[in-house]
Amino acid sequence: MKSIPKFSHRACLAGIAAVGISVSVSAAAQGAQEPVKNSYLPVTDSETFAAIHSRMVAAKPDIMKRQMDLLQERYDLSDRPASGVVMDRAKPVQEGVRVKLPQGVTWNQLAGQMPDQIRDQGTFPKGFLPLPHANHPEGGMVFPKSELDELNRQEARDLTRFDLDFDIPERFLAEFPPAIYLTTRPDLGDVSQGKLITIENFYDVFSGILNPKQLEGLRLLLTPFPQQQFNQTNDRRSDKPSRGVACFDCHTNGGTNGAFHLVGDIRPQEFRHRIETPALRGVNIQRLFGSQRALKTVEDFTEFEQRAAYFDGDPVIATKKGVNVLERGSQVHFMAEFQEILDFPPAPKLMWDGKLDPKLATPAELHGQEVFFNKGRCAECHSGPYFTDNLMHDLHAERFYKQHMENGMMMARDGAIKTFPLRGIKDTPPYLHDGRLLTLDDTVEYFNLVLGTKLTEQEKKDLVAFMRAL
Q1: Are residues 445 and 324 in the same domain?
Q2: Do residues 375 and 435 both lie within one domain?
Q3: Same domain, yes or no, for 376 and 257?
């Protein structure tokens, strides 16, 4: 395996606050003692903002080069749009398997081997491994440029981090801004008017469409509140003191922009999982919330995000940085009322039961549907008209690789992940809970290997065609 360069001294120090290491800078620099890991973030300020800013800006080029080198090693990042396939409006869908194979290995060869053979030979494709955060020892929310630019234009609110940039190329993200479909007004189609909905324009766009509770819920979802990296303290990651982050800064228009961060409920830092923002479309049919947390209602999830996830799961640091404690009976309820009317995009080829209308579907799509419900084993989890069983499943993909470190993240087990609904799946790349799979073609190869289904090339191709129709 290719050796991974060690983190620079500056980069290591940059991550100290994130992992909650109780050790002084001088002791770390001198190697006087082994760092002591614990569950808590440091509350007291040990550096001025100017010192933090100077140190982290200087470390940024090396950190981003290391992450982009990892992406280039794992994936084909070229622009290869699928002919005639677009997302909500006009953005092309990227096609083809982008995960790179080890030299001299084919997909068919891998599919014919046992997991322990692949593990011992080290031939599990690196793009199938967990995807590290752009700076895993540091973590935190990172937003794509399209979101940063439009928020700046509308609100003069800057969520640019001085220490990190977004890593996945824009062509592999959802269309910006996403369309908005409502269960209450399907006759209107996309109600977003092609705009990024913000605190500046939501009333003009939605007054007369939403009831007062839904309108107030949307206002709260668009209101920025303090968050770990964006707040008023010296250890923020924005140039200026920040008003904070809104729910829909990640869940853009109730969809997704691909923003990522780290889960707050795992320690130590190297075992925390990168989380790519899922769309909120179809929340009304879902019974689990959070890709790994299994929260039982969208109200639970909304409250959890504000109280804990915004601050890496640390209520002490949340108090310091200005946690916004929502009132459950009104504010949380109103926010849930709006989230629960976000609908999936139209799928004109699907009938009421989620099956293709044979009069409208192509032969490839119909064959892909047959593979989905039979040989491909997809429907064992992605069942029903919305293609989810609302359960958690552990694929045990760690059978295929040895635990090791890459870019500050431990390549360990994923654990149980909830079954995301597949309706509208072509509109919300990248895929899997951490965004490690850039295209639907990648997802087919991943599950073909992990589930051992041994699909033919034609079956794989047609399965992708079927999922694009959902």
Answers
A1: no
A2: yes
A3: no
One domain, residues 231 and 265: yes
Residue 461 and residue 120: Cα distance in Å, rounded? 30
User: Do 150 and 250 fall within a single domain?
Assistant: yes
CA distances from 160 to 10, 143, 146, 225, 468 (A): 20, 7, 11, 16, 33
Enumerate residues 6+ apart whose C-beta is below 8 A from 104.
Answer: none
Distance CA 214, CA 403 (A): 46
φ, ψ at 211 (rounded to 5°): -80, 170
Report the b/e string of 66-88 with b at 16+ CB within 10 A.
Answer: bbeebbeebbebeeeebeeeebb
46 pLDDT above the threshold of 70: yes
Domains: count for the chain: 3
The reported pTM is 0.92
Residues 243 and 267 in one domain: yes
Number of Cβ atoms within 10 Å of the Cβ of 117: 12
Helices (H) and strands (E) counted in the chain, each on its own, are 15, 8
Which pLDDT belongs to residue 32? 56
Burial 309-344 (b: 16+ CB within 10 A, else e): bbbbbbeebbebbebbebeeeebbbbbbbbbbbbbb
**What is the sign, positive or negative, of the torsion defined by CA atoms of 166, 240, 266, 405?**
positive
- Note the pLDDT tens digit of each residue in 185-229: 999 999 999 999 999 999 999 999 999 999 999 999 999 999 999
Query: Predicted confidence band at 27 (pLDDT cuts at 50, 70, 90)?
Result: very low
User: What's the rounded Cα separation, in Å, for the pair 299 and 289?
Assistant: 9
User: Which of 320, 339, 358 is the last residue in one of the domains?
Assistant: 339
Distance CA(197)–CA(184), nearest Å, equals 18
Phi and psi angles of residue 128, each rounded to the nearest 5 degrees, phi first: -90, -10
Q: Any residues with CB less than 8 A from the CB of 319 and at least 6 apart, and which?
A: none
Q: Which domain holds residue 46?
A: 9-66
Residue by residue, DSSP assigns 167-217 as -S-GGGS--SSPP--BSS-GGG---STTS---TTTHHHHHBTTB-HHHHHH
Q: Are 190 and 278 found together in one domain?
A: yes
Tell me the per-residue pLDDT of 67-123, one tens digit each, with 9 for 90 and over.
999 999 999 999 999 999 999 999 999 999 999 999 999 999 999 999 999 999 999
